[in-house]
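Follow-up to my post from last week.
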Amino acid sequence: MSDLSNDTIIEFENVSFSYNSDNNAKDNEVLHNINLSFKKGELVAVVGRNGSGKSTLAKLCNALYEPNNGRVIVNGIVSGTEKNDEEIRKHVGMVFQNPDNQIVATIVEDDVAFGPENLGIDPLEIRQRVDDALKKVGMYEYRLEQPFKLSGGQKQRVAIAGAIAMRTECIVFDEPTAMLDPLGRKEVLSAVRTLVDEYGITVILITHFMEEAAQADRVIVLNEGCVILDNTPEKVFSKSDLLNSIGLDIPQITKFCALLGLGNSVLTVDQAYDLLIPVLEKNS
Amino acid sequence: MINNITFGQYIPGNSFFHKCDPRSKLIGVFWYVVLIFLCKSFFSLALVSAFTLISVIFSGVNLKTVLKSLKPVLIILIFTAIVNLFYTSGGEIIFAIRGFKITEKGVNTAVFTVLRIINLVVVSSLLTYTTTPTMLTDGIERLLHPLTYLHINVGSLAMMMTLALRFIPTLIEEIQRIINAQKSRGADFENGGIVSRAKALVPIFVPLIISSFRRAYELAFAMTARCYTGGNERTRMKQMKIKVRDIFVFVYCVVLTSGIIVLNRLFEAVL
Amino acid sequence: MNHFVELKDISYSYTQGSKNRVFAVKDVNFNLNKGEIVGIIGHTGSGKSTLISVFNGLLKPASGSVFVDGQDIFQDKKTLYNVKFKVGICFQYPEYQLFEETVFKDIAFGPKNMKLTSDEVKQRVISAARYCDISEEMLNKSPFELSGGEKRRVAVAGVMAMNPDILILDEPAAGLDPAGRTKLIGLIRDYNRTTGSAVIIVSHNMEEVCSLCERVVVVNKSKIVLDSALDDVFSHSEMLSSIGLDVPDVTKLFLKLKAAGVDLPTDVYTPEQAAEILKPLINRR
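User reply:
Got it. Predicted complex:
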């Protein structure tokens, strides 16, 4: 087995991937030789342009895809065989971009129960897990609603509950807010934060909103199938020239603070506020 | 727009029928449908109608909603009435104009058939009003369980039904969106002959089919990610148990059956 | 004074006729002139999507009238049909409406419906392709082979090809990555400048609207609550954030600082502007 330390949940070892695996031509590759490890309890953001391979990376995390070369190891289990893949999916859940295309049932609570039902769990325990999961994402009072009557943000929270109810230790989010309005984005992001902060769930968040990535513990930048940056958000967003050159932004606040000469590692409104208030009070 | 679809729409409630096991409701409705067709006289049909009315009360669904469910079949009702009225001959002639005769038997048949259809529609919509689609498919799955011995994957069939029900509103919304988009590019669905009208549907159906495939593809990933394999032994959060009230459903049907048999014997057949 | 588009006292309800009517749009008045570039902001359910569907007669308002180019668009069937070519609407995620075998044919769908000659259609397609940076090679491809960003541009070109006097785009950049967004916004700006057609962008992304529009209309709870020039909009920043709109982060920061007692203007929305204002305050010793 690999040299997995206890606090690693997902490990990528020299992973390459291409969609048409029959001709292993290098130019068809979506991901090249990726080495990454995700630690338990982390909130990791993965950013990159469309086509940079970030969605592929997400699907490799819970064995929806198999690497052409290298290994993906989840809690010591190597993906690639049917039995292992099923086991991996019990550890790593996934929330997709389009809220409409991942809800399977016609009633909210039945949808949340779908995963545990597939795992063959005892009915009484499923009931408990479903109620618990819906409460965790703040959707308990909607448990008897029909999904198509919910807003986009609410649907995504139902999808999150569906993953929690399987007792996954890690949830991969594949651009969960891309189709939502600002209100829905806020709802989903605060649910994500709760998962990490209160329930210790590891989150891998694929996004192209830099403001969202700025809230992570760690940011991975993908470009043309390679990891080009992997660091704290402060360090990553201080490389504004590099990011711009590969078609990515930096958060507005970071840009503003850099213009003011306050350094290039300020990420949020609150940080900027805390930094500015003493200076402004002293001067007035 | 979506709110106008009354067909198959579940109405949350706590009535007697809401609490019944979906299996007994399914069997009950099936039985009831057979009974409706066994009615031969107006007396037995009156008995069925009375039982239907009682069922409506037991379902807690208000009469107005129930009548609404008849709206989509209104055309069928009128059509059947007219056909029966003019094409059934026999008995006394009540009314005649330009070779069209309306006979006593014609009137009887028309009324009889229309009443039958009304009973049929009301009873089956009571089933969907009081049973969530999930419970309904679960019920069907369990009733069809014996088929697994013939190597038919009943679980997958039931899953397909659930998914179909789940995606109806989504696809209706999608169709509306595509129609609006193509109309905005000058697509004309209202004018021209049959050929050009059929052609006008291409810009709707091609995107619809493509997006349905995309949805199916994404859905397959989402279901796999949640450990659905299609073959695994799934458990269910909501268990079904036959209770006293379900026995009542059977008693109800038995009483109606015997009533109809007696009335059919006592009175002359209409048809 | 005659405007190119005039909406007079428009009301629309999805529950037409029922007792408890909920209005998606209520008593809205709106005018638009050729060449303008306007942003309509509001969150989901504010009525903004309903409003644009009234512009080309897809929805008929319960009351009020819509004039385009001096004509009441609901006066007869023909006017109602032809208004679609004067007011081009590109809905959210327009790439899902593509259906033809080639990009060329798909862009040609609108012009063909206008009964133009094949030469004219070709001309229209080529110029629309140019506005949307679609190469000649791409025109012969199937739209389904393209990347997400390219499909989006093809769909936008399909609407531009009708040469509408007004181009309405509902969330044109939704789902695109930052570079894709910037590119599309740039193309829309150029289109407005070269053709002189009016452009309306519907969005809930304030930054996007600010980077493009000269006039901003804010819709909230079925009504227009603000209709003003871009520079004035952010003097209402407090109101904007109180109705739950996502104002740019620097605006948020300035609002927060102001609330703490720092004397600052709140009509800022770009990092450059903001830095310009704060620099003297910080360096004053």
